[in-house]
Target: Cytochrome c domain-containing protein
Amino acid sequence: MPASTNSARATEFMFAVALASSVLACNPDDSHADAQADASDDGDTEPPGPTWHRDIAPLIHTHCVRCHQAGGVAPMSLDDHASAQPWAAQMLDEIAAGTMPPWGARVTERCQPDHEFRGDPTLTDAELDLLARWLAADTPAGDPATAAPLPELDSLDLADVSASFHNALPYAFEGPDDAYVCFSADLGLSEPAFLDGIQVLPDNQAIVHHVLVWVTPTEPAGHPGPWDCPPGAILDDAWLLAIWVPGASPTIFPEDVSFAVPAGAHVILSYHYHPPGPGTYTDRSGVALRWQPEPTPWLGAFAMLGLHPEPTQLVDPPFMIPAGASDHVETVAEPWPADEVSLFSIGTHMHYVGHDQRIVVQRPGQSFADADCLLHTPAWDFDWQRMYPIDRPLEQLPTLGPGDTVWMDCRYDNTLANPGVAQALSEQGLSETQDVHWGDSSLDEMCVGLVGVAWPIATPDPGP
Model:
């Protein structure tokens, strides 16, 4: 979508959002699942079953160590036998239950997509069996001389950064109330650029609930900030480029796809701060961007569908989740507002009350029962939300086009049995569940579909 042709309607439906292009885990590699070594020649016999050095270490490094290492986001390290052995039983339970590694997209009775997603860290049955046999054998370390090679982990930092920007000054405010503020910076572009990578650089992660990264063609009125940014606001003459939530990885467009940014553009960082309680808090987060001087063969953007649902989009208005409801359903229908595009990434988005979301697309002449399911996250977890990149070449991606309707089917558990509800209430000093309505704060809810779309640069702008 060339920046010069973005309309107000396009701003609402065709803007970039980013929730982690990938979870903090490596892609799976089954090669070590069947690896077994012979007894050593010096008379010291290796245990007959799997050992840490020979079999389990490669598995754990492939699937877990991205988070579970010193300084990682996880609460414990699993990168050597001494640190992993005490957690072996819980590790097996979490993996068998599908809780770890974190990956929400599932094939279910309600959703059988005809595409797969790139980067699924889920263990295979063979790997799970290997881990179970290691636990049953009392988690032996084995002989370091038989150690299998460990996979090399890719960096989670955005490579080849073109420029980085931080708030003009530290922002300070008083808790416990949430704060919504914006800062901006001049990108310094004298010519158009084609952006293909975005990484939010959080400072005080204890209070940064999320960050919206916008691009505007001219200097905003409040530059360089801070200025008030109300929840859910769509900034005038701006394109939303990315959304960061805790744990998110950089947003990276597919190869040969970029977002067009005009000369003279400014970046706007819109912050939602959510302090854990009373006190004075400060933050000076920022963003790193990567762009190219020449256009790519395809242009891309993201769409947030159902962001501000109208009564006609709700199957049963108004949007309200009663206190104590354990499986409340809200459904939002969003007619695709643009020309045909290719869908390269998709994600679900709710808050703490949500527990199950499904996204389907109903084609012209197709019944809802036969609609194409795009994504199902049946065990929604706010802390592990992300985008799921579709594993196909650009020319073979599923499409969205005129006449299509995207349906977001969202289910909510507004009881204290939902850990997210209990946490959100506790942070606000509440002990009883409340009726929940549509909104941007943590005690409000949403039912949003996130899609990354691309189109060949030779075709007309798909904006409405």
About this structure: Confidence is low (pLDDT under 50) at residues 1-43. The chain has three domains: 1-23+155-296, 48-141, 298-464. Residues 33 and 129 are 9 Å apart (CA to CA).
